[in-house]
Every structure is written in C-alpha cells, then in structure tokens.
C-alpha cells in the first residue's frame, strides 16, 4: 500500500492526511485514548470521598460552567461486542427506581458543586438511555431542572445516545421537549450478516427513519457510530456500509476499532475469533474508510472522529479550542464535569472521581445518603501540565511553546528535556515537526497521535501497557 496524501485543505492548521503503513506497523503499539490524564488505570482504588468533596468546593469557588453526565446502564438486548457497564433486562419498571436514586445523588452533588452554575453541556450515556419510558425521562429532567441551572440557549450542548431499536413515536419529540438538541445513533454496521453475528438486528431503514425524524425536529450535530473489526466484515462489505452511511449524511461520524477481549468482557465470548477480519483486513478497512470519508467532504478530527467542515467540532479545531473528555471530543473546554449513576466519572480542574461499578453497591451507598465514589486521583501540577500538553496535541495537533509559557510560566524545552529527546525519532520519521516555535503533528502522525501523546505521559515512560487497546 503506498503512502498517498488524500486530503488537501485551505486551512493551514489542518494538514494533509497521509497513510504510511510502515510507520503504522512501527508505532501501532497499545496506548491510552486520553479521554483523561492521568488515565483511569492511575486512579487510586481507595479514593477518599473527602478528597472529592474538597475538589467540588474548589470547583464551586471557580464558578466555571458545568457539564452534567448521567450513566443509564439498562439495555433490552445484549450486543456481543459491547464492553460498557450495563444491565440487560426487559423490565422497564427498573428504570424509575434507578432514576430516583440518580436524583438523590444529584441533590448531593448540586449542593457540593453549586446549584446556580450554568449547565452548558449535558449528556445521557449508557447502556441505552432510550430504554427509559417517556414518563421516567421527564421525571429525571424535571428533577435536574430543580437541582441545576439548566440552559435553554442555542449554545448549549445537550446530547443523548440513541439505539434506533429503542425508539417509538414519542421518543424523539420527548427528548426535544426536554431540551436535548444533539443525538448520537448507534449503528455499527448495516450488513445483515454482521448484525446477526453481534446480535444487533437493525435495518438501515430503521436508522434512516430516526435520523430523518431527528432532523425534522431540529436536532443538530447528529452523530453515527460505526465499528470496524466485527465478525464477517471485509473491506468490501464495510465499504458498502460506508456508502449507506454517507447517503444518510450525518454531521459527525465515529468509527471505532473493535477490540476482541473475551477474557475481560464475557459477552464477547459469543463472537468466534475465526469470523473476525485479519489485522491486515482491519488496516485496509480503516485506510479505505478514511479515504472515502475525506473524499466525501468530512474532516478528520482525530482518533476515530470525523465531522463536516461546518460542524462545531471542526470549527473548534480550526480555531484551536477543541477539547477532550470522557465523552470524547467536545467544544466545552471550560466545564467541570458532574457525573451521576453507576460507574460514572466526574472531573474538576485538579481531580477525577468515579462511582462504584457494581450496581447493588452503588444503590446501597445512595440509599444510605452517601456518595458512591470508590476511585479517583488528585492531580499534581505536573499532571495538569501534562494533561494540557496532551490535550493540545490530541485536539489541535500542535503544541505552541509561547502559549505553553503563557499558561504555565514554564519553558517547554527545560520542562520536557527528556521527552523532546525521545521525540527525535518521531521527528525523523516525520510524524511531528519542530520549527523551534511550534511542535506540529504532520500528515503521517495524525493517525498515530496516541503514540505521540505517550511521549509526554509520565505514567507510560516505561513503554506500552497491555491494559490498553492498540493504537490502530
């Protein structure tokens, strides 16, 4: 496979994308996805709740806006590839008791973080948020409205993950009336053979109907999720899926790599390893997918994400204000993150904290009037500096020395002497360039951005860890 530039752009901050298979093979080790730094594997397994309370107090004093995340774990169907924290059940009556507990937790967090701070970003994830019946959705959002300062302006970013199989005629109008203005649809693949192999039967017409109704109602930045590396996928079959998706014309696309880890995720034991595409086929699928999406007018945001040039993600990246958190890329860099529900992770400027993964244990903590936090980490100044640097690289694909000095009152070359020395091989391989003022990720380096970021990761200094997925 030859190394060919496939994207020309008039934006100087968005370089061409180049596929170099030799470099991919050299740098395609395992590594974090950097939805946080330090990453979750560095969390203290016995994090004191008192530390979170102090972090929330510092957050409250800062008066920054808030992002509100809710983990809704219920799914009516088991998708065999899924590695999320979920509860498989057909019993919709489980939803209301869970939501009542979420609201009890929200009342505690509202007091800690401050009820009057504007919630400019809100997200329901899961699981399957649309598992909730209409009256339960309304009850949850009404409760949030009493506890937090929910926004109604056009600049709010209120999003929800949607399984098109769990949508009836009331679902989208209800979500719209509740204030949601952005949705993400799980698709994964439109091929019936692939769908059957992963136990997710979802005809293309079903997905299209939901997307079209969402557009009619006024939802913006509509995202579709795809997964490559699933059973029975081939470069040819995935190309057909991609054509179907391009015809639907979503504003954003997430194209994730499937990591087959049946020892860690029991549902994956139902996927036969010999039905999966080979590593070479997966590379070909990814290469073809990037080429096709760029050709169709999408911009490569980074990692697995693509967006139309006029989408807020693409605009934010061009303007140097893209951010990354546990929900992926976002335009709301200024928010502290209040997270509710089982396994949810919250964030302030100097701490991360995570709720218990175990649903009965989370329920017991909330029922006793306590927070359910079990893990977390307090960030040192060095952690915060490295988080900022990794954020600049993974979001803007550049690191400006002068900006670093202005933000941190440090000299980049002195602070990162060892890291810049270790970066020399990547400069030689043209993954990144250094003109003395700016470190600029090069066309061949965009796909390998996780490898570049690892250079600045103090916890990965000894090399790759098997606890992470492969970079490509």
UniProtKB/TrEMBL annotation:
Q: Pfam families this protein is in?
A: HemN_C, Radical_SAM
Cofactor or coenzyme needed: [4Fe-4S] cluster
Gene3D superfamilies with a match to the protein in the record? 1.10.10.920, tm_1862 like domain
Q: Which superkingdom, per the lineage?
A: Bacteria
Membership in a protein family:
Belongs to the anaerobic coproporphyrinogen-III oxidase family.
Keyword Iron annotated: yes
Record's CDD domains? Radical_SAM
A GO term, aspect molecular function: metal ion binding
Q: Per its UniProt record, what InterPro entries does this chain match?
A: Coprogen_oxidase_HemN, Coproporphyrinogen-III_oxidase, Elp3/MiaA/NifB-like_rSAM, HemN_C, rSAM, rSAM_horseshoe, rSAM_sf
Function text = Involved in the heme biosynthesis. Catalyzes the anaerobic oxidative decarboxylation of propionate groups of rings A and B of coproporphyrinogen III to yield the vinyl groups in protoporphyrinogen IX.
UniProt name for this protein:
Coproporphyrinogen-III oxidase
Query: What does the entry give for GO biological process?
Result: protoporphyrinogen IX biosynthetic process
- The answer on whether this UniProt entry bears the keyword Repeat reads no
Q: What keywords are annotated for this sequence in UniProt?
A: 4Fe-4S, Cytoplasm, Iron, Iron-sulfur, Metal-binding, Oxidoreductase, Porphyrin biosynthesis, S-adenosyl-L-methionine
């Amino acid at each position: 496979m030859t190394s060919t530039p496939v994207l020309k752009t008039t934006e100087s901050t968005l370089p061409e994308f180049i596929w170099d298979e030799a470099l991919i093979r050299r740098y395609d080790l395992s590594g974090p996805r950097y939805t946080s730094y330090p990453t979750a594997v560095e969390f203290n397994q016995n994090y004191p709740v008192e530390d979170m309370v102090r972090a929330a107090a510092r957050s409250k004093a800062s008066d920054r806006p808030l992002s509100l995340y809710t983990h809704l774990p219920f799914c009516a169907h088991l998708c065999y590839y899924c590695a999320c924290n979920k509860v498989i059940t057909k019993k919709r009556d489980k939803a209301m008791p869970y939501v009542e507990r979420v609201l009890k937790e929200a009342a505690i967090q509202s007091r800690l973080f401050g009820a009057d701070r504007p919630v400019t970003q809100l997200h329901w994830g899961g699981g399957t948020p649309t598992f909730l019946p209409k009256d339960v959705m309304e009850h949850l959002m009404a409760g949030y409205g009493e506890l937090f300062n929910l926004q109604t302006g056009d600049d709010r970013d209120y999003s929800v993950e949607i399984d098109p199989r769990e949508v009836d005629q009331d679902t989208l109008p209800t979500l719209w009336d509740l204030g949601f203005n952005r949705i993400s649809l799980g698709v994964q693949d439109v091929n019936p053979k692939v769908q059957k192999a992963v136990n997710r039967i979802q005809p293309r017409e079903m997905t299209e109907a939901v997307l079209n109704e969402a557009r009619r109602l006024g939802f913006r930045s509509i995202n579709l999720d795809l997964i490559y590396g699933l059973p029975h996928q081939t470069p040819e079959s995935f190309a057909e899926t991609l054509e179907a998706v391009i015809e639907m014309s979503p504003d954003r696309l997430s194209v994730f790599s499937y990591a087959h880890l049946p020892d860690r995720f029991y549902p994956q034991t139902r996927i036969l390893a010999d039905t999966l595409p080979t590593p070479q086929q997966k590379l070909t699928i990814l290469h073809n997918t990037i080429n096709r999406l760029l050709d169709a007018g999408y911009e490569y945001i980074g990692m697995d994400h693509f967006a139309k040039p006029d989408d807020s993600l693409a605009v934010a990246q061009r303007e140097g204000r893209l951010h990354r958190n546990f929900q992926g890329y976002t335009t709301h860099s200024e928010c502290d993150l209040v997270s509710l529900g089982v396994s949810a992770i919250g964030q302030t400027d100097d701490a991360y904290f995570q709720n218990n993964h175990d649903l009965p244990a989370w329920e017991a903590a909330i029922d006793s009037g306590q927070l359910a936090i079990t893990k977390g980490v307090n960030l040192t100044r060095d952690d915060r500096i490295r988080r900022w640097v990794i954020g600049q690289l993974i979001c803007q694909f550049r690191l400006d020395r002068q900006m670093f000095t202005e933000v941190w009152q440090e000299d980049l070359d002195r602070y990162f002497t060892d890291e810049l020395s270790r970066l020399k091989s990547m400069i030689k391989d043209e993954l990144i360039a250094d003109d003395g003022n700016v470190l600029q990720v090069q066309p061949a380096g965009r796909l390998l951005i996780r490898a570049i970021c690892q250079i600045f990761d103090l916890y990965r200094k000894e090399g790759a860890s098997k606890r992470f997925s492969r970079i490509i």
